[in-house]
Amino acid sequence: MKIKVIFICLLIVNFTSIINAQEIFYPEIEPLLNIKQKSELEKAINILLKARGNENNANDIERKYVKLKKKGNEDSWRSKTWEAKQQRVMAEKNYKLAYKTISDVYSDLITKAEYENSTYKSEALSLNKQALKKFEDANSILSQYSEPTQDFFEQADNKQIDSTLRKSHSLKLNGIGLQIAALEIFIEKGKQASIGKNDDIAWEKAKKANTISSYYEYLNNNPRGKHMADANENITLIEKQSSGNDIAETDNHKNPKNTTNNTNNIDTSSVNQNNKISNNRLAKGNLRFKVQVAASKEALSGWILKAKAPGVKDIVTIKKEGWFKYLSGDFNSYNQAAKYRDELRSHAPDAFIVVFSNGNQIPVTEEMKN
Fold this sequence. Notes:
Layout: H1 2-13, H2 35-64, H3 66-70, H4 74-80, H5 82-112, H6 118-142, H7 150-155, H8 158-209, H9 212-221, H10 228-241, E1 287-296, H11 302-308, E2 315-320, E3 323-331, H12 334-344, E4 352-357, E5 360-362, H13 366-369
Antiparallel strand pairs: 1-3, 1-4, 2-3, 4-5
Helix pairs in contact: 1-2, 2-5, 5-6, 5-8, 6-8, 8-9, 9-10
């Protein structure tokens, strides 16, 4: 995101001796912003750049006359560097304008948001109210520099000005921090509640289908779902009660981002229904057993795959009929694969066995297990 990148750069270089760098942008609001709000944040960035320019001007002026201060000529120093003080005040006024622009966007989001419950709403609105009070206090402090004259700056003490500007700026930063906390209530807590609801909906869908693939779809799309144990238990029951024909219905995909994994190509073309080879006549040497550690209808990025199957090495990815599956291991017997599957389940609880004949995935049968 362009706005976020620019903000990060600003936070690295901005805020000289009187300013402490702090995070002022909350990137999680990106999907919520309309065109006008994005424009306002871009405007704030430009104003922050102006503030930085004012500070650079002040630094240049002070460096020019630094010898006077080192020699103890305070009166001469003040007379020569009055414009530096003026530039610092102008910088803080620009910070004030930039922060107000950011604060207005945040406040608009906070007040118009639809919260999960009244407690969240009350807490967020309270934080926003406190934030706005911080801005009022900051502006009150800065008001003494509304129209300062050259004479004022010549007589003003540098340390006093710096202290006043620091206090005003700190209040504004505190206000931004409170608003970010309010946004986190709306986004993070609301997201958690939404995840819980979606988890229940996904579980009901899986139970209604009551197939191995439906339960694995639930496990893969809800890696921290509260029904994980039930899903695995139901998978085990179905495996015991059937020949596992359902397994052949789910598939995988080659993950282009997973550069550390073995991405050997596997032919996953469908076996012609009219020419299926009877499983009980397949030669043992033709069968290759593997363990599937994850599956999804969307490609899994490298870090998500690591989260789903931590510590699992040599993962092969394949795609078939809209499914993306991630496999590990290569065995010539079901029992060998089962032993490996059991080892992986401590890291990848949804691991299960799939079998291939001449590169084509076929159903797991009871005969293969014996």
